[in-house]
Amino acid sequence: MLTLIFTAIFSVASLGIAGVVNYQLQAAKKRVAVNSALNIAEAGLNYYKWHLKHAPEDFYDGTGAPGSYLHDFTDPEGGSVGKFQLDITAPSACSNTVNIKSTGWTNEYPNTRREVQIKYGKKSLADYAFVSHLDAWFTEGEALHGPVHSNGGIRQDGTNDSVVSSAVPTYTCTPAHGCNNVTKPGVWGTGEEDALWQFPTDNFDFDAVAADYDDLLNIATSTGIYLPQRGLGYHLVFKNTGRVDVYRVTKLRNPVNYQDTEGKSHRGSWDIEREEPHDTYFDYPLPAVCGIIFVEDNVWVEGVVEGKVTVVAVKLPQTQNNMRTIVISGNLIYNQKDGSDVLGLIAQKDILVPLYSAPANLEINAAMMAQNGAVYRPYYSSSYSPYHLRTAISIYGSIITKKIWTWNWTGGGGSIISGYQTTNSTYDPRLTYGPPPGFPTIDEYNILQWEEVTEK
Q1: Is residue 282 part of a domain?
Q2: d(CA 346, CA 293)
């Protein structure tokens, strides 16, 4: 009888212990499945980062059609141990980011799932404070805050607090930059932060980052503002209400003599004398989704920007003799410098500051790109005194210029004889991954944000 009693007690205890062990085993296996599901989900993100590196414009996992995409996750021997499902939100025409959600699970526990989401983004061209295809000279009165690069040489007599890089080991410094055609290092000058000077570095391919004018035109005609060629061009005055006043320019001031950065002399005018309100786009709201203003003519800009917008001055089809220019005729500032207000200026030819209309102390908040020309203030002689010599110019954003850039001109003794006597260029770091709509991008995709959406 005692044997039977103890046998029964032992059996019950053994079954209880076995149940507890089995429960603990299942719980441990469940915990392993939970962790494995996260690893599998992350593997899905890594797979698509690899995919984008080899096919940067494919957001359909090679299928050509939108949808969720299911993949097996295999062990080193090739056996399937789980699956991940990808849901991809492609970048819009005005965005440089792609969102990918990956859901992972094991075959043993298909209902135990982990979801992770990642945001990838390409750097915009506005990642630089200044980029030039040709040689550049920063004089003693010029301060640079942010990365600077030239495909040619750089004479740096100003101040800089970030990298100043050149794509060449040496170059010929010409009289235009205060030299007598002598060979100089890629970056040189009297600037004190030479520890941040780098040369030679990679060449910057301007052709590879050309703005897609056809895409920008399509966006403007469908959801933005499109202004065809008419008369002398258009004048845009941005307002802190998120709206813009558009004028037709009907007359320019009397022509003056000036010189461009290539040493060519011109006679003409970039200052407005008379204009009239546009019958459709006066006090017009800026496009809310993808703010593109496409102008097939010269365009003058100024005012306070509230929102995100890019102004494009382009004549299509493009030829050497019909390229369009953007003129900054007054202060051009953001209502808030917190990333919510962003302005892009993309000119087919030049972006310039005129003789009369721009103030003596000028502030420009924008990412500026002269696709085939220069960002500059022309040389005006002292015969136009006192307008030929201005006080200060402050840039908050970026300058991308194909040809020689300058805000001022120096005489034989090194003193400034035309343009702005003091310049200050400050890089806007928010433009790297939050650029103006439709602004060109560079580099491959980088991780901007990772988060776990949920655990099931």
Answers
A1: yes
A2: 10
In 3D, which of 104, 96, 102 has the Cα closest to residue 120?
96
- Does residue 450 share a domain with residue 366? no
Residue 363 belongs to some domain of the structure: yes
Amino acid 370: pLDDT = 94
Given pLDDT bands bounded at 50, 70 and 90, which one contains residue 288?
confident
CA distance 320 to 324: 10
148: in domain: no
Residues 375 and 301 in one domain: yes
| Residues 275 and 416 both lie in one domain | yes
| 384 lies in the same domain as 450 | no
Which of 63-77, 303-317, 376-390 has the lowest average pLDDT? 63-77
The domain in which residue 281 lies consists of 211-439
What domain count does the chain have? 2
367 shares its domain with 449: no
Pair (449, 412) in one structural domain: no
The answer to whether the CB of 326 falls within 8 A of the CB of 349 is: no
pLDDT per position as a tens digit, 394-430: 999 999 999 988 999 988 777 899 999 999 888 898 8
Residues 396 and 449 in one domain: no
Q: For residue 254, which of 356, 126, 107, 134 has the smallest C-alpha distance?
A: 356
- Cα(135)–Cα(153) distance, integer angstroms: 5
Please check whether residues 119 and 215 belong to one and the same domain.
Answer: no
Residue 255 lies in a domain: yes
pLDDT single digits (tens) 148-159: 999 999 999 988
User: Strands of 114-124's sheet, edge to edge?
Assistant: 69-74, 80-89, 97-106, 114-124, 441-455
Q: Are the C-beta atoms of 161 and 193 separated by less than 8 Å?
A: yes
